[in-house]
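Justification of resources, computational component.

The compute hours requested in this renewal are based largely on the per-chain cost of generating structure records like the one below. Each record pairs the submitted sequence with a full C-alpha cell output. That output is archived, and it is also reused by downstream analysis tasks.
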Amino acid sequence: MTTTARLVSTSPAGLSYSPASKSLGRASGRVSFPARPYGALLHLSSPLMASAGIGGNGSPNAHEDSAGPSRIGEVKRVTKETNVHVRINLDGTGLAECSTGIPFLDHMLDQLASHGLFDVYVKATGDIHIDDHHSNEDIALAIGTALLQGLGDRKGINRFGHFTAPLDEAAVEVILDLSGRPHLSCGLDIPTERVGTYDTQLVEHFFQSLVNTSGMTLHIRQLAGKNSHHIIEASFKAFARALRQATEYDLRRRGTVPSSKGVLSRS
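The structure output for this chain reads:
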C-alpha cells in the first residue's frame, strides 16, 4: 500500500469586492475574481462579513497581499484491493465529484459535500466484484487522512460540532470532537440488510475507518426512523453539518489552539 498526502497553498490576492449596486430594487454586492485552478480557495463574503474579517466557511480573511495555506487535503491510497484518490477542500462551496463504483456511497458523499460546504473529489476503483467492503473501508480511510491533512495544526477552529438532522420520519443526532483521539459510538438501528446493493453494515464501518485516520471522536445517535435510506442519509447530513461547525473558525480564539493543553494532535 502507498499513501501520499499534500497540503496546497494559494494566495487570495486578486479577489475584490465592489460597492453595492441597485438591482431589481434591492441592494446587491458584486464579486469579481480571476480564473483559478480546481481546489483554489476563494473567500466570498458579504460587506458585513468582510468588515468583521470573516471569509468563506467562517474563516478569517487574509490580507490580499498575504499568502496562507488553503485547508486542502489530498490522498492517494493504493493497495492490491483498491485504488483511491481523495481531495477535500474544507473551505469549499459544496462541490462534489464522486465516483466510487458504489452508487449509494456516491449519494452519501454528495451529502457530505453539499451540507458541509466542502469540495469533495473521490475517485475509486476496487474489487467490488467480491463485495463493497474493501472499497468502502479504503475510501473512508483516505477521507479521514485528507481531513487530518487539511486541518493541519487545528489552530483557531471551533473543534466541536453538534447537529441533528431529520429526514421525513427519521432523525439522527451527531456530536463530534476534532480532538486527535479516535473514537466512534454508533447507535444506528437500520432495519434492512441492504439499500439497493449497499450492505447497511458498511455504514458503521465507514465511520469507524474515517474516525481511525482523522483522529476524531464521533457519536451518532438515531432518535427516530423506520426507513433504512432515510436513517443513513440523515446520518451523513448530520455528520456533514457537525463537521462543518467543528472545522469553521472561532474568531474569538484569534488563531489559538482550542485546547487547554495548547496542542491538538493525532497521536
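Confidence is low (pLDDT under 50) at residues 6-55, 60-68. The CA atoms of residues 194 and 200 lie 5 Å apart.
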